[in-house]
Amino acid sequence: MAKGKIKDIVEEILSQFLDENGLELYNIEYVKEAKDWFLRVYIDKLEGSEEEYVSTDDCELVSRFLSEKLDALDPIEQNYYLEISSPGMDRTLLKEKDYVRYAGKQVDVNLYQAIDGKKALSGELVGIINDNLVIKDEKANQIEIPMNKVAKTKLTVVF
Fold first, then answer.
1. Which of 29, 54, 98, 133 gives 93 a disulfide partner, CB atoms 3.0 to 4.6 angstroms apart?
2. What φ, ψ does residue 136 adopt, rounded to 5°?
3. Residues spanned by CATH 2.30.30.180 within the chain?
4. In the CATH scheme, what architecture does the domain 96-155 have?
5. Residues 6 or more apart whose Cβ sits within 8 Å of residue 30
6. pLDDT tens digits, 69-125
């Protein structure tokens, strides 16, 4: 079965269940690594939730539910490992809503090609404005980067 179709099935199975449990779907990966296939489902707390982080109990709850549903439907032909986890503290921002949710947080930005001699930038996330990623550097200067030049944006882990 096509990877896209598997992701759609998983999203459909989980949609209501996650919502009922104060969670949301962050990302789904269905990948082959060496000889093994992995179905990785990343979950997050709903924005505004009392609890900020996904617990191991949350992951176990989703894993049991999804495993049972996938076993019943059997949409995946080959053997695979099911992994449920949070996106982590250094999560990659994937969707526009992630850029809105984490505005004001520190981010690390990797670029496809250097801008002013730099392929990596850090700063405070302002958001996406007119298809540009906007961050503030340490001197509070706004830097605008066309989104088509951004390879990856991740939250900075600050201790």
1. 98
2. -110, 130
3. 96-155
4. Roll (2.30)
5. 3, 6, 7, 37, 38, 39, 40, 80
6. 999 999 998 999 999 999 999 999 999 999 999 999 999 999 999 988 999 999 999
Contacts of residues 107-111 at CB distance under 8 Å and 24 or more positions apart, as own/partner, are 107/135, 107/153, 107/154, 107/155, 107/156, 108/153, 108/154, 108/155, 108/156, 109/133, 109/135, 109/145, 109/150, 109/152, 109/153, 110/150, 110/151, 110/152, 110/153, 111/145, 111/149, 111/150, 111/151
Burial of 62: CB neighbours in 10 Å, binned 0-12, 13-18, 19+: buried
Q: What is the pTM of this model?
A: 0.86
Q: Which token pair is 136?
A: 């503030």
Q: Name residues whose C-beta falls within 8 Å of residue 61's C-beta, 6 or more positions apart in sequence.
A: 21
Domain limits, CATH 3.30.300.70, in the chain? 3-85
The CATH architecture assigned to 3-85 reads 2-Layer Sandwich (3.30)
